[in-house]
Amino acid sequence: MKQTWWKEAVVYQVYWRSFLDTNGDGFGDLEGVIQKLDYIQNLGVDVIWLNPCYESPDFDNGYDISDYRSIMSKAGTMETFERLLEEVHSKGMKLIMDLVVNHTSEQHPWFIESRSSKDNPKRDYYIWSDQPNNWRSYFTPSTWELDESTGEYYFHSFAVQQPDLNWKNPEVRQEVYSLMKFWLDKGIDGFRMDVINLLAKQEGFPDAENSEDISYLGNNPGIHEYLHEMHEEVLKHYDIFTVGEIPFVTPEDGLLYVGEDRQELHTLFHFEVCDYMAHWDMKRFKEIQRRWYHGLWGKGWNSQFLNNHDHTRLVTRFGNDTTYRVESAKCFATLLHMLPGMPYIYQGEEIGMTGVRYPSIEDYNDIAMKNRYKEEVEKGRNSQEVFESLLHLSRDNSRTPVQWDDTENGGFTSGAPWMKVNPNYKEINVAQALKDPDSVYYYYKQLIQLRKQNEVMVYGNFEELFEDHQQIYSFTRGLKSEKWLVVLNISEQQVQVHLPENLTSFDRELMISNYNNQVDGKSKFLMKPYEARVYRLI
Ligand code: TEU
Ligand code: CA
């Protein structure tokens, strides 16, 4: 297997609790993933990223782990997991797990011991202080929670139920390396590393100028020493790949995590799009892509995603989930697969699933949303106004169950679904997509096949056209003698495109498009709303 097999991979993210329920308890499970592996494989993807399925009290849907070496009963058993891994490999795919080691659950035995007394041997597995500072956490007004039993505060970057591990403690680091090897020795193919740039904390926890800008949580001195040690102690001994979830990072800092010479991680997700663009912003998106291409290309490898289990579904957030749902889903799929970097497909994206608007806060599960709702209402704000302000970016937009068919609950469960199924499952579902040759599903499949047959999509350089255009995103990808032209009309208007002089001399072979019968002139053509075209220049 080529050392850089992962650079050519397409990744499919499975949020198993919303994927398929096979025992009627209303939660998806690993058995459900096994039953749908042919569906996933049929897309042509190479790697499955499985969200956390370790033992957890589930305050943050598995991102609060109480036992790193066992499978949460909702998901199944270790036997189910091992069968899943075996099946994934037998179908020629790979499986990466979620590594969540910035924090544990408050119910992890380590924390139960650590909080039991100030002189407990595991006290320094976590971060304790009698001097809380003014930092906000991701999910709460303060990063500090008072523990009555010892009168000290513990640090948590996320929910109160997610105490941060103290990575300054070498025993903690060795515990993590040991649990990583436990899973790698089972044969998994790597890790997606949860907020891995938060492991090191600012020395002395100084008060922040502006505690609303929580970037003080990340990229602190010591982080690269930790990740290099992880590389030396664990990662370099396995043929795996690692993708770091790295919020608050610029391309220059990003390169310090994924530079080919750094011996830390293989690739990363930055969050300049998904944490800061609530809606589509062409100017900003182009600028981000430009910066990351010039920052990493030839030195490190980027990853591309337009939604995941934390971020609203792309047709709702960036596209058009009504009149042009299919066209815009395909347009963004083209963008995802034609940009430089590894494409990540979030379950349901391949059938153009949309975000959701439920009527009451009781219909929602996301701890981030519910904590913020409570915080704002307790400040005296109007509860309906607060609720409505949180809907667009609620993480539950992407956590509604996968819509398999038009039977009750979209075929997701025979029981009561843990999260209501999006009512549009009658029109938008896998069964319908598989029957429709023009569905979003087959378009994703075609893009993935193109990528397998044409390494210009993986290794080709990136040169922009129409940089300032507000509707048209266009660029070429070039590798050796191959040159492909991508033209996307990311708007609801028709747009006339006039090709630059240096490209009009080429003939063009249309490789993929989301419309049929193009109006195609030698140097100009009319792009319909959300029309995507990829040409091979001859
Ligand atoms: O998410 C970290 C992170 O960056 C998210 O908090 C994201 O920016 C935010 O949710 C946007 O709404 C990871 C996991 O993906 C997330 O599901 C967990 O809740 C979080 O870490 C804590 O483990
Ligand atoms: Ca189940």
From TrEMBL:
CDD domains: AmyAc_SI_OligoGlu_DGase (cd11333)
Gene Ontology CC terms: cytoplasm
Name under which the protein is recorded: oligo-1,6-glucosidase
GO biological process, one term: oligosaccharide catabolic process
Family annotation (InterPro entries): GH, GH13_cat_dom, Glyco_hydro_b, O16G_dom_2, SusG-like_C
GO MF annotation: an example: alpha-amylase activity
Short name of one Pfam family: SusG_C
Enzyme class: hydrolase
Organism: Neobacillus cucumis
Family named by the database record: Belongs to the glycosyl hydrolase 13 family.
